[in-house]
Design goal:
Blueprint: E1 11-14, E2 23-31, E3 34-42, E4 62-66, H1 81-84, H2 98-107, E5 112-115, H3 124-136, E6 140-145, H4 154-158, E7 163-167, H5 173-179, H6 185-197, E8 201-208, H7 216-229, E9 236-240, H8 255-267, E10 273-276, E11 286-287, E12 294-299, E13 302-306
Parallel strand pairs: 4-5, 5-6, 6-7, 7-8, 8-9, 9-10
Antiparallel strand pairs: 1-2, 2-3, 3-4, 11-12, 12-13
Helix pairs in contact: 2-3, 7-8
Amino acid sequence: MTCVLTNAGSKKYKTCSPTFPQVVAERECFAMEKSSRFHWEFQRVWWWTLLKTLYHFLPGSKTLSFGLPGCNLACQFCQNHHLSQTVGAVRAAATFSPEQIVHEAQKNDCRSIAFTYSEPIVWSEFAMAVAERAHAANLKTVAVTNGFVSETHRPRFFACMDAANVDLKSIRNGFYREYCSGNVEPVLNTLRYLARESCVHLEVTNLLIPTLNDSDEEVNELAVWVRKNLGAETPLHFSAFQPAFKMQTWQPTPPQTVFRAREIALNEGLVYVYTGNIDDVEGQITVCPQCHQTIVVRNGYTIDELHLNEEGCCGFCGQSFHGVTADG
């Protein structure tokens, strides 16, 4: 399957990935006095240079993804810094209301709307307004977030979301303090909340940066924490770092480091562990934990094979699929 839109006024846009370039439709827009972008792509639900994925949420469907400027962290390695670290409004071509965003999603046969690129918690009022209209139109909503949110606002924001991919940048607080100007505990609290107290489908992404958070010991520590606090079936994505923002001279993550991280997490008992930002067929597939047959085969931005039955279970043995299917 492929997804190439030919809407009037749209243009081809190539992401800055060194390994998986993609053609999508892009439209710069203006909403609540801030610039954003619209992208449509096949579900893994949103991918940008950090390969923010949701492999287990509406696999094979399309999503409309957009973001507004701003973030509540200051990550030195941010690969969306052109948007997340923008202060004030920037050039825009049109104005979009929440109703118009929902209309665009419906017009392009999207099953969901994703709030991404930057940090949706910063512009949560607008995201929540869009989510309200989306649910009324039978569309799902997705937050791609750093999870750095207060105890009081957390339940209010995520009550509007059907799925979330949370960036757990490191399991250690020292990394957050030195490289993100934040701390890890609010993020861990968000992850616990989503796994234990909400109905939100949860996946986790960890960007591996050479010498900073990629040691076997730290990867093992993170995997153990995910298994004990979120559950062994929580999908975990290890993504390779590419030089960006204030770390332009840093070395990119070797593929072997990402392979090794996946191996460690699988050995620690996690069921669904994926790799990103590298060319790795094995790290993209989904295997049934019961019969060990491959039930989802991904190839970059397309799904080549999808072996789920009408009930959203494994098409080979009937084992339930941990996630949300197109029929679920």
